[in-house]
Sequence to fold (75 residues):
Amino acid sequence: MAKEIAKTKADDLKGKTPDELNALLLELSRKRLNMRFQKAGGQLENTSEIRKIRRTIARVKTFLSEKAQAGKATK
Fold:
Protein backbone atom coordinates (compact mmCIF):
# COMPACT_ATOMS: atom_id res chain seq x y z
CA MET A 1 0.00 0.00 0.00
CA ALA A 2 2.88 2.37 0.67
CA LYS A 3 4.09 2.01 -2.88
CA GLU A 4 0.65 2.95 -4.21
CA ILE A 5 0.45 6.02 -1.99
CA ALA A 6 4.05 7.05 -2.58
CA LYS A 7 3.56 7.02 -6.36
CA THR A 8 0.65 9.44 -6.30
CA LYS A 9 0.99 11.54 -9.41
CA ALA A 10 0.33 15.25 -9.66
CA ASP A 11 -2.45 14.63 -12.19
CA ASP A 12 -4.23 12.42 -9.66
CA LEU A 13 -4.01 15.13 -7.02
CA LYS A 14 -5.38 17.90 -9.26
CA GLY A 15 -8.80 16.29 -9.43
CA LYS A 16 -9.18 15.80 -5.69
CA THR A 17 -11.12 18.08 -3.39
CA PRO A 18 -9.43 19.77 -0.42
CA ASP A 19 -11.17 17.32 1.94
CA GLU A 20 -9.78 14.37 -0.01
CA LEU A 21 -6.33 15.94 -0.01
CA ASN A 22 -6.49 16.48 3.77
CA ALA A 23 -7.48 12.85 4.27
CA LEU A 24 -4.60 11.72 2.06
CA LEU A 25 -2.22 14.01 3.95
CA LEU A 26 -3.29 12.49 7.26
CA GLU A 27 -2.84 8.97 5.91
CA LEU A 28 0.60 9.78 4.50
CA SER A 29 1.71 11.41 7.75
CA ARG A 30 0.70 8.34 9.73
CA LYS A 31 2.47 6.07 7.25
CA ARG A 32 5.63 8.19 7.47
CA LEU A 33 5.57 8.09 11.27
CA ASN A 34 5.15 4.31 11.24
CA MET A 35 8.05 3.95 8.79
CA ARG A 36 10.27 6.16 10.96
CA PHE A 37 9.64 3.85 13.92
CA GLN A 38 10.37 0.80 11.78
CA LYS A 39 13.62 2.37 10.59
CA ALA A 40 14.69 3.17 14.15
CA GLY A 41 13.95 -0.40 15.18
CA GLY A 42 15.86 -1.84 12.23
CA GLN A 43 12.78 -3.45 10.71
CA LEU A 44 12.45 -1.28 7.59
CA GLU A 45 14.10 -2.84 4.56
CA ASN A 46 13.35 -0.24 1.89
CA THR A 47 14.35 3.11 3.36
CA SER A 48 13.75 4.95 0.08
CA GLU A 49 10.00 4.68 0.71
CA ILE A 50 10.35 7.30 3.47
CA ARG A 51 11.76 9.73 0.93
CA LYS A 52 8.98 9.00 -1.56
CA ILE A 53 6.30 9.53 1.06
CA ARG A 54 7.94 12.75 2.26
CA ARG A 55 7.90 14.11 -1.29
CA THR A 56 4.31 13.04 -1.82
CA ILE A 57 3.37 14.88 1.39
CA ALA A 58 5.04 18.00 -0.02
CA ARG A 59 3.12 17.55 -3.28
CA VAL A 60 -0.20 17.26 -1.43
CA LYS A 61 0.56 20.35 0.68
CA THR A 62 1.42 22.27 -2.49
CA PHE A 63 -1.92 21.41 -4.08
CA LEU A 64 -3.75 22.31 -0.87
CA SER A 65 -2.15 25.75 -0.81
CA GLU A 66 -2.86 26.26 -4.52
CA LYS A 67 -6.52 25.43 -3.97
CA ALA A 68 -6.64 27.78 -0.98
CA GLN A 69 -5.12 30.59 -3.06
CA ALA A 70 -7.57 29.92 -5.88
CA GLY A 71 -10.43 30.07 -3.38
CA LYS A 72 -9.26 33.44 -2.09
CA ALA A 73 -8.90 34.81 -5.63
CA THR A 74 -12.50 33.97 -6.52
CA LYS A 75 -13.93 35.76 -3.47
In short: The two ends are 39 Å apart (CA to CA).
